[in-house]
Amino acid sequence: MRVGRDSPAVGLERILHAPTSCTHTAAVLARELSVPTKALEDLVEVDVGLWTGLTETQLKRRFATAHRELRESPLNVNPPGGESLSAAADRLMTCIRKQIKKNGTKALGVVMRPFGFALAKCVLGGGAVTELWETSRHATEPVILDYDAKPKRKTGQ
Fold it and tell me: Which residues pair with 38 in a beta bridge?
């Protein structure tokens, strides 16, 4: 893995990652960019319980109703033996927002597993949560989200 000088990753102050599966990728990026890393337990991948290791075809065949709900309203899904997707999104967003607030205006990198990444991208990036499944399946390239941690004021207030 190489990060070019014109890469948007240049200028990062720190790379955040889960303390397990993302450690190697974060370390490689950190070496390339000469920045520190920080492992955060709250960035662990979403626990999908009994769905772990299933392909989409297997999930659709074994858990048809849940698969349909995952496509139509994913934040209502609670995988059997796992973490509700709503709770996972809250956990990830709370962690990322806290780090953004701590870091101020300095850029942060976050290395995440595909499903957690998709949740973060949909929530932070304002994407449609119904695209969660597709986003997680195509999470192969770095994505830049310009996120303002300040709550937006509603018009008329």
Answer: 16
DSSP state of 44: S
Coil, strand or helix at 110:
strand
pLDDT class of 142 with cuts at 50, 70, 90: low
Task: Give the per-residue pLDDT at 49.
Answer: 94
Q: 74 near 85, Cβ under 8 Å? A: yes
Number of Cβ within a 10 Å radius of residue 125: 13
Residue 43 lies in domain: 12-137
Residue type, 2: R
Highest mean pLDDT, choosing among 69-73, 91-95, 140-144: 91-95
Residue 21 maps to which CATH number?
3.40.50.1240
Cα angle 70, 76, 81; round to 5:
80
